[in-house]
Write a structure and sequence with these properties.
By secondary structure, this protein is of the alpha+beta class. The chain is built from two helices and five strands; from the N terminus they run αβββββα.
């Protein structure tokens, strides 16, 4: 018969603590989305998640690819790669360690889709 041991400091539950946007981050993103929808430049949104990142995808039309992705990197290599904005090709436009700074310092009206 095996001996049973009590494990006090189990780190198993701590690994899954941030698998999505927290409330303040999501509120900041949705405030920006509401502003851009009232402006008429954004039409729809979706969420996507993976092992490395969680992203808020922005569409101009529902049938197209996402125009922009506001993403949270779950496993950043550097401190300033926690949040970033990608275009529809997957190129990183801006990145920052703070989501509020990233959203406030980006000029959203100048980001246009080039066809």
């Amino acid at each position: 018969m095996k001996k049973i041991r009590l494990i006090v400091n189990n780190d198993f539950n701590k690994k899954e603590k941030e698998i999505f946007f927290i409330k303040t981050e999501l509120q900041c993103i949705l405030n920006l989305y509401a502003k851009m929808v009232s402006n008429g430049s954004w039409k729809d949104y979706s969420f996507s998640s993976g092992n490395k990142e969680v992203s808020f995808n922005v569409y101009q039309r529902a049938s197209e690819k996402p125009v922009l992705k506001i993403a949270k990197n779950l496993k950043p290599n550097y401190y300033n790669e926690k949040f970033f904005i990608k275009d529809k090709d997957g190129n990183v436009i801006k990145k920052s360690e703070n989501l509020n700074q990233l959203i406030n310092k980006t000029s959203w009206n100048k980001l246009r889709v080039v066809k």
